Amino acid sequence: MESLWGASSMTAVELTEELRSVTNWAVNTVRTMLTRLVKKKILVVSENKDGIKVFTPAVMRESCVELEGESFVQRFFGGATKPLLAHFAQHSNLSSADVEELKNLLDQSLVKKS
Predict the structure, then answer these.
(1) The whole model's pTM is what?
(2) Cβ contact 53:11 at 8 Å
(3) Per-residue pLDDT tens for 10-62?
(4) How many structural domains are present in the chain?
(5) Using CA atoms, how far apart are residues 7 and 101, in angstroms rounded to an integer?
(6) Residues 65, 95 share a domain
(7) Are residues 15 and 50 in the same domain?
């Protein structure tokens, strides 16, 4: 998805070439993934002037990250955010600056709820 968001739209072959160094996926694997993302309405498909399918993101990156984040918290932490934050705080190498930034974000979250 990062490649598609960056390029706006791509064919399966173009995406395969872009991902090859990272995934080494075959074009059929990429096509399968693209088909699934179209079914989930994350991508839309059209045809270019040569009749080749072109895949374009149907959702913005921020929306997708939000939905996937909510799904992750639901699946692994029963929808509870506190255990998620505790897990990452205990198992991550957070710098002092990271901790301070997280504290500020949590403080902002409290202000928004007031």
Answers:
(1) 0.67
(2) yes
(3) 999 999 999 998 998 999 999 999 999 999 999 999 999 999 999 999 999 99
(4) 2
(5) 31
(6) yes
(7) yes
